[in-house]
């Protein structure tokens, strides 16, 4: 566990948790979204480490993050979920999905 602002924060290595370096399907997005919804409901901050993720498609990002964005207060999401290690085109895909909600 790591700490941010004196709050314990769970760290999830997405590559290890999903057992792949390609996040391409809506099913994968639903799996991760389910985990994040649990963290939001428990008010349990989580860091998602995207190191070793080579590809994140808009379908995955929309299913996971877009639907979270539509379902919860944005400040709650920002307080609960921290993303690290996004590389390549993945940050642009993430931003695109949230901008086009």
UniProtKB/TrEMBL annotation:
Which InterPro entries does the record cross-reference, listed alphabetically?
DUF4325
DUF4325 domain segment(s): 28-89
The source's superkingdom equals Bacteria
Keyword annotations for this protein, in alphabetical order, are:
Plasmid
Q: What is this protein called?
A: DUF4325 domain-containing protein
């Amino acid at each position: 566990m790591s700490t941010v602002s004196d709050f314990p924060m769970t760290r999830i290595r997405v590559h290890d948790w999903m057992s792949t370096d390609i996040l391409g399907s809506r099913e994968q997005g639903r799996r991760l979204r389910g985990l994040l919804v649990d963290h939001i409901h428990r008010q349990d901050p989580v860091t998602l480490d995207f190191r070793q993720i080579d590809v994140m498609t808009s379908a995955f990002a929309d299913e996971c993050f877009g639907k979270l964005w539509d379902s919860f207060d944005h400040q709650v999401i920002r307080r609960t979920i921290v993303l690290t290690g996004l590389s390549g085109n993945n940050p642009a895909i993430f931003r695109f999905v949230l901008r086009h909600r």
